[in-house]
Amino acid sequence: MKLAIIGSSPIALEAAVRFHTHEASLTWFNHESMASYELFSSVEGSWENCTSKLGWEFLGKNRPDLDFSWENWKKYYYLPVVEALKLGQEVKPHKVISVTKRFLAPQEEITGASRFRDLFRLIYQLNPEEFIGQQKENDPETYKRLSEEFIQSLQSSLEMYEDFDLVLDLRDEDTSGSIAVTGRALGESRIGRDMISYGYEALNKAKKMKPIPELRELCLVGSSDIAVEILLSLKEWLEEPRSRLFLISSEEDPFKTLLSHCEDTTKKHFLSLIEKLDQQFENEVNEFHKKLREWQSLDDFVQVKMTKPVEPIPRLVFFSGHNVTAVDQLIDRKRIFITLEKPEFRQGLRHPENNHLDLKTLGVDEVLVANELRKEPLDEYLQKKENGFFKISPKRPNYKNGWKEDLNALDGTETEIFKLFSPADSH
Q1: Which of 65, 107, 174, 211 has the CB geometry, 3.0–4.6 Å to 35, for a possible disulfide?
Q2: Cβ(319)–Cβ(354) below 8 Å
Q3: Neighbours of 240 (CB within 10 A)
Q4: Low-confidence ranges of the chain (pLDDT < 50)
């Protein structure tokens, strides 16, 4: 069987090794995406949770006696496996942009046979400079005869295709949708990426944020696994008393579901941070009440000369059960304004005092969006359940037992693939 594997995730690597040992003819499109497991600093990680016995056997070596890190994983496992696979299989660092059938229209059927009889066609983008360099090295005489105009045309755009029996889409979900969970917020497309960032880009930015005067108020949208990492990355920023983070989630009780399947170390760090922030706020409230009582005990003529104590606001403010419905930016482009709404059918269990505010427009210095991620769209012209086309969405590192679940999903896919090639199955 001729197999295409798309993705650079750990489970994509595992699939490539596994089907290589089954003597499949495979092409692995391991185009690097934005997803970077190294950004998940709350996860201790382990060799057991991203490598396999089969992989080490394929390399002909034992697991290194080193502490786990994603840098060590790349150096001692990922890259060596890639190089070993290149000796017997095609490994292409190219981006796949389209998956279709070779001849069949999406709804077309073959009389007396299944659609599996027709091959899949993958169109991918080729790095023109790499392609030209290969031609120059492999066939210098032909390269000399190429016109300058032809070489320049290749450098502007180059697509190629290849046909396969089977396709496994094992790419990471690393593309953010909208700031709105419904998929569209008014005015969002007008805001520059310097003021609003998404997914892994937002996480990477959060790790570099410092408590400076130009960055006092932030908005974090979402309560996904990426949101947990962003919140933990902002720990230093949140320690500044003048910092304030508005967390907006459509979930009634943000993070409750996530924490039920979160990796233990991440959960510990997260709960510790929330407890610390809650304790700080409680201390500030107690101090406020003390000062308020002192102020109230003063004579009227003294009170008018003294500033009335201001009730504190939490450094982490939840708007739970809310949607972002609009985004705006004033002409000076120094602040961004978020409009929130909460439907009557959804409760807001975290900071319920915010549920009844008449005006819900927040002005902040920057917005980080951590709604659920998705795979970058492929141009797919296939049936909804196309025989021979399989998808697995890899779990992120802070998902408890994520590697085990990915391996189980791969086992299931492998079983389905062998059914397709069973003599009892006709096509």
Answers
A1: 174
A2: yes
A3: 14
A4: 424-427
Contacts of 149 (CB under 8 A, 6+ apart): none
Which of these, 191, 212, 241, 214, lies nearest to 368 by C-alpha position?
191
Full-model pTM: 0.86
Q: How far apart are CA 178 and CA 327, in angstroms?
A: 11
Closest to 43 in 3D by CA, of 185, 168, 203, 176: 203
Task: Report how far apart, in Å, the C-alpha atoms of 180 and of each of 5, 223, 247, 324, 390 are.
Answer: 32, 13, 13, 5, 29
Radius of gyration in angstroms for the set of CA atoms belonging to the chain, rounded to a whole number: 27
Q: What does the block give as tokens for 217? A: 């108020």
* pLDDT at 266 (0 to 100): 93
Map out the domains of the chain with their CATH numbers.
2-174+375-420 (3.50.50.60), 176-373 (3.50.50.60)
**Tokens encoding 114:** 């299944």
Neighbours of 385 (CB within 10 A): 6
pLDDT score of 153: 62
Q: Two tokens at 304?
A: 């008018």
CA distances from 327 to 24, 92, 152, 265 (A): 50, 40, 42, 35
User: How far, rounded to the nearest angstrom, does the alpha carbon of residue 201 sit from its chain's CA centroid?
Assistant: 9
268-272: long-range pairs with CB below 8 Å, 24+: 269/42, 269/232, 270/42, 270/228, 270/231, 270/232
Considering Cα of 210, then 211, then 212, then 213, what sign does the dihedral take?
Answer: positive
Three-state secondary structure along the chain?
CEEEEECCCHHHHHHHHHHHHCCCEEEEECCCCCCCHHHCCCCCCCHHHCCCHHHHHHHCCCCCCCCCCHHHHHHHHHHHHHHHHHCCCEEECCEEEEEEECCCCCCCCECCECHHHCCEEEEEECCHHHHHHHHHHHCHHHHHHCCHHHHHHHHHCCEEEEEECEEEECCCCCEECCCCCCCCCECHHHCCCCCEEEHHHHHHHHCCCCCCCCCCEEEEECCCHHHHHHHHHCHHHHCCCCCEEEEEECCCCCCHHHHHCECHHHHHHHHHHHHHHHHHHHHHHHHHHHHHHHHHCCCHHHHCCCCCCCCCCCCEEEEECCEEEEEEECCCCCCEEEEEECCCCCCCCCCHHHCCCCCCEEEECEEEECCCEECCCCEEECCCCCCCEEECCCCCCCECCHHHHHHHHHHHHHHHHHHHCCCCCCC
What pLDDT sits at residue 132? 65
